[in-house]
Give the backbone structure.
Amino acid sequence: MPGVRHVRNPLLIGWAWLYAVYLLIDQARLAQWAGHPIVMRSQALFESLGAGYVVAALSIAAYLIGTIAVDITGIIGARVARSVSGLLERVIQGSRAKIASTLNRRWFRISTPAHNLQMRLRGESPDIRGLILNYIAGQYARAGAPSGASLDFPLELVLERLDVSAMQLWEDSAEQYQEIDRLRSEAELRFGLILPLGILGGVVCAGTSWWNVPFVLLLLFFVLRQAVSSRLRAREMVATLAYLNQVEVPIVAGAIEVAKELVKDVEDPSRVTWVGAMAGGLSAIGEFEASQAIVEEAISGGIDVREPYFHAIEDVVAEWVPELCFLMERMREEAERDSAKAPDSGTEGDAEGSAS
């Protein structure tokens, strides 16, 4: 049951932390604390109430510790994943440079596993990205956008908001929602247990033999692997349901609804027009950074900001995101300056050639 899982996770994680901290504290320090007046009064109270009340009180403490540990583990895990992902990105770029320069198969063997690990750390996979790309393309096609326009939509933003879409299944398809919730809960439990299990493993190795370290590390690796796999399966289910149009990704659906209104009076809207319309749509639903990102992504992908269609939507976009129009105008001015310099440099080169 979903409610039971939400109580189970912090409770088990909290008990694991209590036990790990208990083993870490020196026995002499425990004896010293036992003589403290507050500890003595608490012990007398628990003895008068009975073992059941002690277990209940410790369970409440474990639950509170577990809820805090889950949040802290999520924050630390996200930062570690970003750091490792950035490091792997540099490795991948270096490997691709080596591939381009040497065509050495050894760099292929380095680049591919590093890229796969980087995606898994971000909660992504080639299947998830492919399903979401197809979902976005389908939404654009139903809105009447030209082919290729969906490639300008910021995919990373959709992947970040993917988990929120599962809540739409709560009423329409409770079984699917419970399965997704179960996988998320399993991942959360394992992520939360990694640190206390690591501490327990260190205490065991210190008390027995350090030759047990490889076994502890192997155990932690499998727990982490199960956590990552459960999270990926949950996200793959949501991505599949989005592809099948059983759930909507709000940021995509909301922006497209506004964009369709913006382009309805434009005759034969091009890809550039849809860039401006989607920028206006994203701004209308409060995604201001994404509205600028979609324009920058389109320009980096080769769209010419001097194209006449780029002006066609500018007046409508100005109603939603005036700062975007300033960005578009600045980009046009830079492009016009670059194009004006090109003939001059060519003329100078021809003059130098004829003089020689």
